[in-house]
Design brief:
Length: about 100
């Protein structure tokens, strides 16, 4: 429909690592949000949860089509402790399925 409040380049948005979303300040005081997952799905509409405004995010889908493994633990891999590592892996899988359910 083209009824966007604004068009914002992804470079101008802020990355919230904790929530896994890009966000941009909304005039209502809240902020527009779009998840990295949405970007990977070629969604370019960020919405503000507090009001009905939406913005169009300008980005290159190629940058997001393949979600990299966010394996920050890799740097501190403790060798010889495979037992607890298996537990951690199952934990991560649980979180992954939880995240993908919130579609
Ligand atoms: Zn708003």
């Amino acid at each position: 429909m083209g009824a966007y409040y604004d068009e914002i380049e992804i470079e101008d948005m802020a990355w919230d690592e904790a929530k896994g979303v890009y966000h941009y300040p909304c005039p209502c005081g809240d902020r527009f949000e779009i998840t990295r997952r949405q970007l990977a799905d070629c969604e370019d509409i960020a919405t503000c949860p507090s009001c009905s405004l939406i913005i169009r995010v300008i980005f290159d889908p190629l940058d997001f089509e393949d979600e990299p493994d966010e394996d920050e633990d890799e740097s501190q891999s403790d060798e010889g402790d495979s037992g607890s590592d298996e537990n951690r892996f199952e934990d991560a899988m649980e979180k992954l399925s939880l995240t993908s359910e919130g579609d």
